Structures are given as C-alpha cells and as structure tokens.
Amino acid sequence: MSIVLKYIWSIASVMRWGLRWGLVSALVMGVSCLAEAQWLPAFGRSRIGTAGFQFLKIQPDARSAAMAGNAINLVNEPGVMFWNPAGLVHGADRPWAGQVNHLSYWSGIRMQSAALARRMSSGDVMAFGLRHLQTGAMPVTTEFQPMGTGQTFNATNTSMGLAYARPLTDRFALGLSLNWIYEQMPDWRVHNATVDMGFRYDIGWREMRLAVGINHFGMNVTPQGRLLRPSLSRTDTLSTFESLAPPTVLRLGLSGLVYREGEHKIDGVVQLNHPTDQAESLGAAMEYSYRDLMSVRCGYEYQSGVGQWPSWGLGWSLPRSFGNLRLDYAFAGRQGLGPVHRLGVMVAWGQQ
Question: What one-character DSSP code corresponds to residue 51?
Fold first, then answer.
C-alpha cells in the first residue's frame, strides 16, 4: 500500500511540475505572440532622439543584464538602487554590502558601476551609487577630413546618487534616490539632477511581488560650450544649443515563485517598460538557484524595431567567515552590434 501511495505522490509531483512549466511556457509564447502580432503599442516611436544622457539606459550590473533588464522585482543587492531603490530593503541581512561591475561595450567603450549600502538596525537602508562611462581616445573627423585630422578626443559620462529605502510594513517598502548626472565632450558639457523612486509590495502568495519604479525623472537642461563647425568659406561657432530632457522611464513588474523542489528554486518575472523617448517594451526573465549557491539566469525584452538577443548569465555565491561573496557574469547583445559582456562582484559583511 505504501508503495502505491509513493507512486501516486510521485505522479502528482510530476504533474505539478509540468503544470508550472506549462504556465511558464504559455507566458513565453504569449510574449512571442505579442512580438509577432505587434499588440504592444509603440506610443514612444515618434519621440526617438528627444532625450539626452543616453548612457543611463545601459544596464549597469551583471545580474540585471542577464535578465535583460527585468530587474525591479528580483534584484536586491546594492546595485538595485539604479532600478528601484525600494529593493534595497530586501538585500543581504548584513550591515554593509558593496558591489562593483565592469561592462565591456562595443568599440572599446568601458563602463564601471559601484554601489555601497548601509543597513540600519531599524531596517532602513542608505546607499551610494556611481556609474562612469568612458570612450577612450577617438579620432576627430570632419566633413572635409573624414579619415581624421590627427587629433583625438574623449567623451565622459558620470552619474552619482544617494538612495534611501524604508520598509513601511513587513510587505510594503518605499525607496527614493537623488542623482547628479554629468556629460562632457571636448566642446560642450551638461549636467542635471534627477530623481528615482519606487515601491515593492509582497502580495503574500507564492512569493509574488508587485513593483513600480520611475527612473531619471528631472528637468530639461541646456548644454554649455562652443562648437566649431567648418564650412567651405568659413568656420561657424555655435554657442546656443537645444535643451535636453533626461530619459525618464516608468517600469511595472510582477514576480513570483515558478518552481521549488528541495534545494532547487526557479523565480520568474514579467516587466513592462514605458520610456519617454522610445517605444514601449515588454520583458520576461527567469532565475534558477541551487541552495542559494549557484544561479542561472535568462531573459528577453521585446521592443518594436529593436533586434535584441536573449540575455543569460551565471552567479556563484561563496559564504565566507566575514559574510558573503558573490560573482556574476552576464552575456547580452543586439543584432548588428555584437555581444556585450559584464562582470560583477558583490560582498556583504558585518554583524547586525
């Protein structure tokens, strides 16, 4: 009799596993159908090129990049302040946590990001974040010297911010981040101040969470400087520029537990992105973890008119005597531009 019961229980477990994966497959197929039928509206298509500070759209950390930027729900390390500051509340249960990431971009462009979080005994979290992108030396070209003038220039993009997150209840958390942004070219420069804000709500069923985040909300600013523009008869000097708006984006995400069996766990997330200067996009991602020691991640973001490959990545957690050490890797790319690699290290330490 016991053998029969065990057999029936095994069949039921397999059926539950199949149902869960069936739901995930249906979700993926639904996203594919959206892509094919173009049900997802493209309200922002006519606004392409109307915002500046485009480096803010680059995914700064490896874990979120592995999930194609679907990060306002699942990511909880210090770098989550770049996505949804409220996620800092759900980070490592240590007084201190730090994270650094390196991005190898196209054409030799490099980007580094760093974040440091301090958790207070009350549960509130303060964090500082930095992003810096540099192009390296690039040749100066003109209309009459397309092969180069023999001179070089560098472009610099920097963002610094302070974030604060607070749990209002055991299920609801709010977060706010104030940021200073700076861009510099040889002939002009511009800086701006922006605000990031968001919340996370734990629904209380199957680890489901609802999150909303607004990023890069700020005023229009005008670059300062002088730009020389040579022509056939003379060289014009431009000192008046059009104002630039930050690339504000509204994100809405829903995440939950897809599968759990013993030490194996799979989480899933669906996220809708509404930028002010591009078409809307819809993304989905999954993260498999084994004993919270090893993680495998994948994700995809569909946006009308943009060819993007599925992203994937790996993570390894190494418990140490001082706390926890985690290594992350992500691979992503877009059609026609090639692959992009990201590396990240996160350390949590101290005793509460």
Answer: B
